[in-house]
Amino acid sequence: MTWQFTLTGLLIGALVGLTGMGGGSLLTPILVIVFGFKPTYAVGTDILHGAVFKSFGAARCRQLGTVHARLAGWMFLGSGPMSLGGVAVASALGDGAQKTEGYAVGGALVLGGIGLVAKTFVKGGVQPSDAPFILQRRDRVRTTLIGAVFGFVVGLTSVGSGTFFGLIMVMIYPLTIPKIVGTDIFHAAALLWVAGMGHLVRGNVDLHAIAWLLLGSVPGVLIASKFTVKIPDDVLRLGLALVLSLSGLKLLNVPGANWIIACGLGLGGVALATYGVRARVGRPRPAPAGSFD
């Protein structure tokens, strides 16, 4: 398989470029469910791949001015070291505990999907603002602790470099969505390099798959990052929540998961088509040439 990996990479890159979320959340279950990878190798391959291609996205976001560098730095102070703890646990599980790893990934996906839905419909709390966000001492401590907790989850499951960090930033920091996306990608690039090298040293990486994935994901993230502000936030969150939850249900081996996934994807497709038609019809038409007010 070669072009299949590249097509998958293009999908992942486009999603991350648009939302800053969902790279590991989607690629790990795809590698397990579609390509037959063992969960530990899927996690390691996903993380090192994410390190490379998110570095391109991070550079692009920095260029666009959508990165809060200090926030990303304090988050990495906790997430970098703790991600190595997650890598150690994932490797210790070994081949005899692959099912446990699969359940861990599945549970993380479902929780991430639920969190995104909650954020979509619960509008209270911190509201986004274009004003400069100055980190206070309390913010720095809280950010480092958040990084430590979810950094461990990333090292263990590959899920969370965008999903959980992006969700937390949406909920507690007064940043606009473009700023959250840029900061999230910038932080994730640094975090995934640490966790990815840890997995590479332990032999949990398929370098052949990474090379073909990058052929699609790098162009995808660079192109899609230009359109971040053009898609409504609620649409992005609900679409990502649906995909995360369905992937998690599959990895958790929920009874009737295949039927649930088919119905969920069908409903999601109908909703997306309906939104596209409404957006197209509601778009204001340009005035005819030569017309006057």
Write the layout of secondary structure elements.
Blueprint: H1 3-19, H2 23-33, H3 39-64, H4 69-93, H5 98-121, H6 137-157, H7 163-172, H8 177-201, H9 207-224, H10 233-251, H11 257-282
Q: What does the model show?
A:
By secondary structure, this protein is an all-alpha fold. The protein is 76% helix and 0% strand. The protein is built from eleven helices and no strands. The protein has helices spanning 3-19, 23-33, 39-64, 69-93, 98-121, 137-157, 163-172, 177-201, 207-224, 233-251, 257-282. The protein is globular. 49% of the residues are buried. The mean pLDDT is 76.
Q: In short, what is this structure?
A:
Helix content is 76%, strand content 0%. The protein is mainly alpha-helical and 293 residues long.
